[in-house]
Design a protein that fits this description.
The complex is a heterotrimer. Chain A is α+β, with helices and mostly antiparallel strands. Chain A has ten helices and twelve strands. In chain A, a hairpin with a 2-residue loop joins β4 and β5. In chain A, α8 packs antiparallel against α9 and α9 packs antiparallel against α10. The radius of gyration of chain A is 18 Å and the shape is globular. Chain B is α+β, with helices and mostly antiparallel strands. Chain B has three domains: 167 residues, Aldehyde oxidase/xanthine dehydrogenase, molybdopterin binding domain (Aldehyde Oxidoreductase, domain 4); 181 residues, Aldehyde Oxidoreductase, domain 3; 331 residues, Aldehyde Oxidoreductase, domain 4 (2-Layer Sandwich). Chain B has 21 helices and 31 strands. In chain B, a hairpin with a 5-residue loop joins β29 and β30. In chain B, α6 packs across α7 and α9 runs parallel beside α10. Chain B is globular. The model of chain B has no long low-confidence stretch (mean pLDDT 96). Chain C has six helices and nine strands, in the order βββαββββααααβαβ. In chain C, a hairpin with a 2-residue loop joins β2 and β3. Classes of the chains: A alpha+beta, B alpha+beta, C alpha+beta. Chains in contact: A-B, A-C, B-C. Chains B and C meet through β1, α2 and α17 of B and α2, α3, α4, α5 and α6 of C. β1 of chain B pairs antiparallel with β9 of chain C. The structure holds flavin-adenine dinucleotide (FAD) and FE2/S2 (inorganic) cluster (2 copies).
C-alpha cells in the first residue's frame, strides 16, 4: 500500500492496534446496533448480526468481500473511510441508514453515513478525528435486506455493479424500502436510489411492481459510465437485475 | 543411412514393452511423490528471490521504463538520478559491452532502448542502488526526451483481409522496413472447386485475447561477479542455455564465462523464456559494472507489463462440407498480434498454421497466416503456442457446421477425425499411435453426452445448462522450429545413490519426475535413490529449451538412452559376477539376481562397488535428436512434427441469461499421451490446464488505453480463476495409444492440456443459449458476462 | 502513534517461537522483515497488494497478509510462518496432508494455503467442504491445484482429530521421498 505512489507517505502513522481491543465490539443498545470502528468484518460475521434475518445482507456482503483472509483484517471503519465505489459495506450500510460517531480530543459528533461521504476518497473527517463507532437503527420485525455483486469470477472482484436493498413489509405492503448502488449518478461513491424507493413505498409487493421500478423508475435517476472494464449500457441493465434480485431475495427472507 | 544408436534404443524399448500394461510397470505410470514436494510443503524450497538472503551485500537493480508506448528517444539524461543517495550506477545502452539485443528469434529487441521505444514495458535505463527504495526513487529522476509516435494497437491497421497485405502505416520496426514479422501458408487440393461443390458452408470471424501467464512467482535474478571477469546468475528462466547465450551476447563474454543456474520456478507456462534472458542480462550487467552481487525482482505490475503474453488472434474461417457431414475444405486468414517484438512469434505463427485445421482429415485447404507487430506488450510463448487460438476457431466452426447440418457435434467429429493410417492436412501419414477416437468416445461416455445434450436442449428459464465438446491435436516438441535435441546425464555414485542432471527445468509442471521414473524403471532402482540437480549451464548438459511439451518425450528419450546404456553395462558385469546371461539379470535394487536362479544374487551396492574396481564407468550421457521435420514453405506440406498428442474435452456449463455470467459445472478431459509415465504430473496437467483454459475462455484479457498503457496490471484487475470458480469435478481419462519414438511410448502433455478447453466451454455456452443466430456470435473469448449478455440481448433470448 | 519521520522503531516480536528485538523503519512491511531480515523465505511475495495470498502468515493465530502489514504496528505480537508450523525436525499434520494428497505443483502458493488451513482448523476442527473452499480461496494458484488442496484440509482435519499433529520430518522423508503411493 505504501508502494502505491499516488498515496504520499504520511507523517504519522496512527496505529489503531493499540486501541483495537477497545473499539472492537458489537452491541445492541436503545438507539440501535453499535459496531466499534476497529471491528473486523470477520468479527461481525461471528456476531448475532449474521444470525438475524433482518441483517441478512451482512451475510451476503461478507461472502463477496475480498477473500476470507482479507475479511479478517479489514475493519468496518477502514472500509467506510476508504470511500470508493468498491467499498461494499458502505453500499450495505446506506440501506440501514447508518450513522457514525466521530470523536476527537475536542469532543464528539454524530453524522449520517450518507453525509459523511463527500466524494470518491473524500470524507467529512478532520485530521484529528477518529471514527469511534457505526450505529445502525434497529430494523423492525418483518424486514430484511440483500446485497448483490457479481463479475467474471466469484471472488476478489470489484463487481460490474453492486447493490443493496432493505425491505420492510406490513402484510404484503411495502412499508419501507431503501435501495443503494455502488453509484447512482455523477459521483463514484455508493449512493441511494431515492426516487425508486419513493415509487415503491406504500405499494403492494409484487413481481410486477418490482419489474416496473427496475425498468421504468431506476433509469430515470441513474447514470452509468463506460470504462475499460465494461459499458454503461451493461451496468445499467445489470443495476435493474440487481435491484430485482435484491428485492425478491429480501422479500423471500422476510416470508421464509 | 543407418539409424542413430539412440533411435534404435528408444524403438527397441518401445517394441519390447509395447504390449505391457501400464499397471505392470514398477514405476512408470505410478503415483509417485514428486522429488521436490517435501521441500515445498515445508517451505524450505528456494526460489530465485529467496537466495537474496544469502547475499547480504547485494545491490538492487530497477528498470526505468518508458512513458510512451511508441516514441523516438531524443535524449536520456541520468545525471540527477546518478547523484541520488544510495545510487551506485545508472546504466544505459552506452554501458553495454556487448550487443544490445535480447530478441529471441530475430534481433529486433534491445535490452535497453536507445533510439526508440515500442511498448510501455521498454526499459530505457537501469538504476543500481543500495536499496530498492533508493532505486525506485532515483528512477523518477531519469529524464528522457521523447518524440511520441502514433500508437498502433489494432493488427488490422497493419494488414488487411483478403490476402493479408500490409497497409500504409507508421512503421513500428522501421529498421526492418515492414511490420509483418512472418507469413505462413498451407495450400493443398482444389479449394475453389470444393467450395463450389459443397452442400454446406459456414463462415465466421474469431477473436482470442492476449492472455497473461500470471505465474505466482514474479521474475527474479541474482548475479554474482566472478574473479575471472565472468558471472554466475541465478534466474527464473525456463531455458538456461538460451539465457546464457543472451547474457553472453549482451556482456560480450564467451559462453563459458557465463554460468546460469536455475532454482525451482514458481510457474512458467512459457512466460519465463524471453523475460528470463532479459532479467538475467540486466542483473549480470549491474553485477559486472558494480562488482557486487546484483539482485532484481519484479513487482507484479512490472511482471505484467514487462513479459511476453499469448498472441491475440483475429481469424476468418470458412468450412465446406458434404450433406452427410464430410469436411471438404477449409479456407482461412489468420492474424497473430506479436506486440512490440517478435519474441517467439515466428514459431508461434508456424505452430498455429500447422494446427489450423484441427485434428481432422481435410482434403483441400488454403490458409494464410501473418504475424504482425503492434505497440502492445510483446507476445511470445504461452502453453499451447498458437494452437489454442486456432483450435478455438476450428472447434467453433465444427459446431456451427454441425448445427447447419442438423447433426450432433460428436457425430460430425467422428466422421472427420484423424485415425491410424490417415494423412494430416500436410500430407503426413499417421501410421500408428492415433488415439483420438478412443479419447472422444471415452469422454462422451464418461459424461453421458447424448443424454445431457438432449436434456439441456429442452430447457426454459433464466439459468440454463449447456454441454460442449472440443477436440485437439498438438505436435510434440519443436518440430521444424529448430535443432530438436535433448540430453541428460546419469551418474551412479560409489555408494549406489544416483545424481541426475539435465538442463530441463522444473517450473512446477513436474516433468523432471517423469524423467526420474524413466531412470528408475530402466535401471531397476527405486526413484528415491536419485537426486535431481538444479539446471546449471556449467554442469548439466544442454538439453534444449524446456518448452513445447518436449521434456517427457525429448528429455525422456535422452534419459532413457543414458539409463539403457548404464543398464547394459551393469547387466553385463552382474552376469559375469553371478554366472548367468546378461539378459537374465534382474535389478530390483537393492537386489540384483539371475532370473532363472534368484539365489544367485548380489546387492546393488556391491554391483556398483565392483564396477568401480573392474573399471566399468558408471556415468552416462544420453542424447536424442528428433528426426528432422519437413515443411514446404510454399504449400505447407511435409511432416512438421514427429508425432501428435490428441485430446477430447467436454465441458458442462451454466449460463445466467439475465446477467450473462457463465460458470463451468463439470468437465471431462481425455488425452492420448501415448503412455502415462508420470501419473501425478499428468493429472496435474489435465486439471490445472483445464483451469487455466477456463480462465482463457471466461475472464482473461489484457486491456489497453489508446496510448498503449495497460489498464489491468495487477491480480485484482487481471482476473484468473480463484478456488471458488473451478468446477466441482474435472475428470481425467487417459488413452495410451503408444508412440514408437517416445520413451516407453510416451507423448507430451504440457501444452496440449490447455488447447481445447476454451472452445469446449464456448461450445457449451452456445448450446445453453440454444439459438442458431446466437451461436455465430459466440465467436470470441473471453466470454465475459457483458459480452454473453450482449448476445442474449441482441437475439432476445431471455424473452423466448 | 508512530512517527514516520523516525528512522527506526523498536519492535518486540515473537516469530516462530523465537523472541526478537527489532529496529525497523516505520514503513517496513512485515513481508520484508520476515523474508530479508529473518530469512524466513517461505513467505512469498506474489503481488504486494493483498490479492494473491502467497504472503499470508499468522499473527496471533489469525491470518494476515504480510504485504499489507507494517512491522512497526506489531509490537508484542506473535508471528507464525510455515517454517514455524511445527517444532524443529517435525512436520505438521496439515503439511503431511498436503504431501499425501499430491497437489503441489510449482509450490509457490503452497505456504499461503497451508497457513490458511491452519487458521481454519484452529477455529473449526471439522470444517465442511464449503468452509474449506471459502477459507482456502484466500490464495490464488495458477497451476490449478485447488481441488487437491481442498482435499488436503479434510485429510488434515482427520489426522488432527485422531491426535496426530506432528510427524518426524526424517521419517516422513524416508517414507515419502519419491515413493510410490498409488497405482
Ligand atoms: C485485494 C483486496 C480486495 C478487496 N476487496 C474488497 C471488497 O470486495 N469489498 C470492499 O468493500 N472492499 C474491498 N477491499 C478494500 C477494503 O475495503 C479495504 O482494504 C478495507 O476495508 C479497509 O479496512 P482496513 O481496516 O484495512 O483499513 P485501513 O486500510 O487500515 O484504513 C483505510 C483508511 O481508513 C482510515 N481509518 C481506518 N480506521 C479508521 C477510524 N477508526 N477512524 C478514522 N479513519 C480510519 C485509515 O486511516 C485509512 O485512511 C479490498 C482490498 C484489497 C487489498
Ligand atoms: S503478496 Fe501479499 S497478497 Fe500477494
Ligand atoms: S502450485 Fe503453482 S501456483 Fe499453486
Amino acid at each position: 500500500m505504501i508502494r502505491d505512489k499516488r498515496i504520499p507517505t504520511p507523517k504519522y502513522l496512527v496505529d489503531l492496534n493499540a486501541i483495537k481491543k477497545e473499539l472492537a465490539f458489537i452491541e445492541k443498545k436503545e438507539d440501535g446496533i453499535h459496531i466499534g470502528a476497529t471491528t473486523t468484518l470477520y468479527e461481525i460475521s461471528q456476531s448475532f448480526l449474521h444470525k438475524d434475518k433482518r441483517f441478512a445482507g451482512f451475510v451476503d456482503v461478507f461472502k463477496l468481500f475480498g477473500t476470507m483472509a482479507l475479511r479478517m483484517e479489514a475493519t468496518i471503519a477502514g472500509n467506510i473511510v476508504s470511500a470508493t465505489q468498491y467499498n461494499d459495506y458502505i453500499t450495505l450500510l446506506l440501506v440501514y441508514d447508518a450513522k457514525l460517531r466521530i470523536k476527537s480530543i475536542d469532543g464528539e459528533r454524530i453524522v449520517k453515513l450518507e453525509d459523511f461521504l463527500i466524494d470518491k476518497r473524500k470524507v467529512d473527517l478532520k485530521p484529528n478525528e477518529l471514527i469511534y463507532e457505526v450505529i445502525i437503527p434497529e430494523p423492525p420485525e418483518k424486514s430484511s435486506s440483500s446485497f448483490y455483486k457479481f463479475d467474471r469470477r466469484r471472488l476478489l472482484i470489484a463487481g460490474v455493479v453492486t447493490g443493496a436493498a432493505f425491505l420492510h413489509l406490513e402484510d404484503n405492503k411495502i412499508a419501507d424500502v431503501r435501495i443503494s448502488f455502488d453509484m447512482v449518478r455523477e459521483k463514484r461513491i455508493p449512493a441511494r436510489a431515492k426516487k425508486t424507493e419513493e415509487f415503491l413505498k406504500g405499494k403492494e409487493f409484487s413481481e410486477e411492481i418490482i419489474v416496473k421500478a427496475a425498468e421504468e423508475v431506476l433509469p430515470t435517476e441513474m447514470e452509468r459510465v463506460t470504462d475499460w472494464w465494461t459499458t454503461a449500457e451493461y451496468r445499467m441493465d445489470m443495476s435493474k437485475v440487481v435491484l430485482k434480485r435484491n428485492l425478491l431475495r429480501a422479500y423471500e427472507r422476510i416470508k421464509g | 543411412m543407418s539409424k542413430p544408436e539412440y533411435v534404435e534404443i528408444v524403438e527397441k524399448v518401445f517394441d519390447k514393452t509395447k504390449q505391457k500394461k501400464t499397471e505392470e510397470f514398477k514405476y512408470i505410470g505410478k503415483s509417485i511423490i514428486k522429488w521436490d514436494a517435501i521441500d515445498k510443503i515445508t517451505g524450505k524450497a528456494w526460489f530465485t528471490a529467496d537466495l537474496k538472503k544469502l547475499f547480504q551485500n547485494a545491490v538492487f537493480v530497477y528498470s526505468v521504463r518508458t512513458k510512451y508506448a511508441h516514441a523516438w528517444i531524443m535524449k536520456i539524461d541520468v545525471t540527477d538520478a546518478a547523484k541520488y543517495p544510495g545510487v551506485l550506477k545508472v546504466i544505459t545502452a552506452n554501458d553495454i559491452p556487448g550487443i544490445n539485443d535480447v530478441g529471441y528469434v530475430i534481433p529486433d529487441q534491445p535490452l535497453l532502448a536507445y533510439k526508440k521505444v515500442r511498448y510501455i514495458g521498454d526499459t530505457v535505463a537501469l538504476i543500481v542502488a543500495e536499496s530498492m527504495e533508493n532505486a525506485r526513487e532515483a528512477a523518477e529522476l531519469v529524464s528522457v526526451e521523447y518524440e511520441p509516435l502514433e500508437v498502433i494497437l489494432d493488427p488490422l491497421k497493419i494488414v488487411e483481409w483478403g490476402g493479408l497485405r500490409e497497409k500504409e502505416h507508421t512503421l513500428i520496426h522501421e529498421e526492418r522496413g515492414s511490420d509483418v514479422v512472418s507469413r505462413y501458408k498451407i495450400r493443398t487440393g482444389d479449394v475453389k472447386k470444393a467450395f463450389e461443390e459443397a452442400a454446406v458452408v459456414v463462415e465466421n470471424e474469431y477473436r482470442t485475447p492476449m492472455q497473461e501467464h500470471a505465474y505466482l512467482e514474479p521474475e527474479a535474478a541474482l548475479a554474482i561477479p566472478q574473479p575471472d571477469g565472468g558471472v554466475t546468475i541465478y534466474a527464473k528462466t525456463q531455458c538456461p542455455f538460451d539465457t546464457r547465450k543472451a547474457v553472453a551476447q549482451v556482456l560480450g563474454l564467451p559462453f563459458n564465462k557465463v554460468r546460469v543456474i536455475v532454482p525451482p520456478l514458481g510457474g512458467g507456462f512459457g512466460g519465463a523464456e524471453d523475460v528470463g534472458n532479459e532479467i538475467a542480462a540486466k542483473a549480470a550487467l549491474a553485477a559486472l559494472l558494480t562488482k557486487r552481487p546484483a539482485f532484481l525482482v519484479h513487482t507484479r505490475e512490472e511482471s505484467i507489463i514487462g513479459h511476453s503474453k499469448r498472441h491475440p488472434m483475429i481469424a476468418r474461417y470458412k468450412h465446406a462440407a458434404t450433406r452427410d457431414g464430410r469436411l471438404l475444405a477449409v479456407e482461412a486468414e489468420i492474424i497473430l498480434d506479436t506486440g512490440a517484438y517478435a519474441s517467439l512469434g515466428p514459431f508461434v505463427g508456424w505452430r498455429a498454421i500447422v494446427h489450423s485445421t484441427g485434428p481432422y482429415k481435410v482434403p483441400n485447404a488454403k490458409i494464410d497466416l501473418a504475424v504482425v507487430y503492434t505497440n502492445k506488450v510483446y507476445a511470445g510463448a504461452f502453453r499451447g503456442f498458437g494452437n489454442p487460438q486456432v483450435t478455438f476457431a476450428v472447434e467453433r466452426q465444427m459446431d456451427l457446421l454441425a448445427e447447419e447440418l442438423g447433426m450432433d457435434p460428436v457425430e460430425l467429429r467422428l466422421k472427420n477425425i484423424l485415425r491410424n493410417g490417415d494423412r494430416t492436412v500436410h500430407g503426413q501419414l499417421l501410421d500408428h499411435g492415433v488415439g483420438l477416437e478412443e479419447a472422444l468416445l471415452k469422454a462422451v461416455e464418461a459424461i453421458n453426452w447424448y443424454e445431457r445434450r438432449k436434456l439441456y436442449s429442452q430447457q426454459k428459464g433464466t439459468i440454463r445448462r449447456g454441454i460442449g465438446i472440443a477436440l485437439m491435436y498438438h505436435g510434440n516438441s519443436i518440430g521444424a522450429e529448430g535443432a530438436d535435441f535433448s540430453s541428460a546425464t546419469i551418474i551412479i555414485q560409489r555408494d549406489g545413490s544416483i545424481v541426475f542432471r539435465t538442463g530441463l527445468t522444473d517450473m512446477g509442471q513436474g516433468a523432471i519426475q517423469g524423467l526420474v521414473n524413466i531412470i528408475a524403471e530402466t535401471l531397476g532402482v527405486p526413484p528415491s535413490y536419485i537426486r535431481v540437480e538444479w539446471p546449471d549451464t556449467a554442469s548439466t548438459p544442454d538439453a534444449g529449451p524446456t518448452v513445447a511439451s518436449r521434456s517427457t518425450v525429448m528429455g525422456g528419450n535422452a534419459t532413457l538412452v543414458a539409463a539403457y546404456k548404464l543398464r547394459q553395462r551393469l547387466n553385463k558385469l552382474a552376469a559375469e559376477l553371478l554366472g548367468c546371461d546378461p539378459d537374465n539379470i534382474v535389478i530390483n535394487a537393492p537386489d540384483v539376481y539371475c532370473k532363472n536362479d534368484p539365489r544367485l544374487k548380489i546387492t546393488w551396492q556391491e554391483l556398483v562397488e565392483q564396477s568401480f574396481w573392474k573399471g566399468v564407468p558408471l556415468q552416462e550421457f544420453g542424447y536424442f535428436r528428433a528426426p528432422p521435420a519437413e515443411w514446404d514453405e510454399e504449400t505447407g506440406q511435409g511432416a512438421p512434427y514427429m508425432h501428435y498428442t490428441f485430446g477430447a474435452i467436454i465441458s458442462d456449463v451454466e449460463v445466467d441469461l439475465e446477467t450473462g455470467v457463465v460458470r463451468v459445472r463439470e468437465a471431462v478431459t481425455a488425452y492420448d499421451i501415448g503412455r502415462v509415465i508420470n501419473r501425478v504430473g499428468a493429472e496435474h496437467h489435465a486439471v490445472g490446464g483445464y483451469i487455466q483454459g477456463m480462465g482463457y475462455a471466461l475472464m482473461e484479457d489484457l486491456y489497453y488505453a489508446p496510448d498503449g498503457r495497460v489498464y489491468n496490471t495487477n491480480l485484482s484487475t487481471y482476473h484468473i480463476p480463484t478456488g471458488l470458480d473451478i468446477p466441482e469435478k474435472i475428470k481425467s481419462i487417459w488413452v495410451e495409444a503408444g508412440f514408437r519414438r517416445g520413451p516407453y511410448g510416451a507423448k507430451g502433455l504440457g501444452e496440449p492440456s490447455i488447447v481445447a478447453i476454451a472452445p469446449s466451454i464456448a461450445n457449451a455456452v452456445a448450446h445453453a443459449l440454444g439459438s442458431k443466430e446466437a451461436n455465430k456470435d459466440i465467436n470470441r473469448i473471453p466470454l465475459t458476462p457483458d459480452y454473453v449478455y450482449s448476445v442474449i440481448k441482441k437475439h432476445g433470448l431471455l424473452k423466448k | 502513534m508512530i512517527m514516520m519521520e523516525e528512522k527506526v522503531v523498536k519492535v518486540h516480536l515473537k516469530v516462530n517461537g523465537k523472541e526478537y528485538e527489532l529496529e525497523v523503519p516505520p514503513n517496513e512491511r512485515l513481508l520484508d522483515t520476515l523474508r530479508y531480515r529473518l530469512g524466513l523465505t517461505s513467505v512469498k511475495e506474489g503481488c504486494g497488494r493483498g490479492e494473491c495470498g502467497t504472503c499470508i502468515v499468522l499473527v496471533n493465530g489469525m491470518p494476515r497478509h504480510s504485504c499489507l502489514t507494517l512491522t512497526a504496528t506489531l509490537d508484542g505480537s506473535e508471528v507464525t510462518t510455515l517454517e514455524g508450523l511445527a517444532p524443529e525436525g517435525k512436520i505438521h499434520a496439515i503439511q503431511l496432508a498436503f504431501l499425501e494428497t499430491k497437489g503441489v505443483q510449482c509450490g509457490f502458493c503452497t505456504p499461503g494455503f497451508i497457513l490458511m488451513a491452519k487458521a481454519l482448523l484452529d477455529k473449526n476442527p471439522d470444517p465442511n467442504m464449503e468452509e474449506v473452499k471459502e477459507w482456502l480461496s484466500s490464495t490464488l494458484c495458477r497451476c490449478g491445484s485447488y481441488h487437491y488442496y481442498f482435499a488436503a484440509v479434510k485429510l488434515a482435519a482427520k489426522y488432527i482429530k485422531e491426535g496426530k499433529i506432528y510427524f518426524d520430518e526424517e521419517e516422513v522423508r524416508k517414507k515419502y521421498y519419491m515413493k510410490v503411493v498409488g497405482r
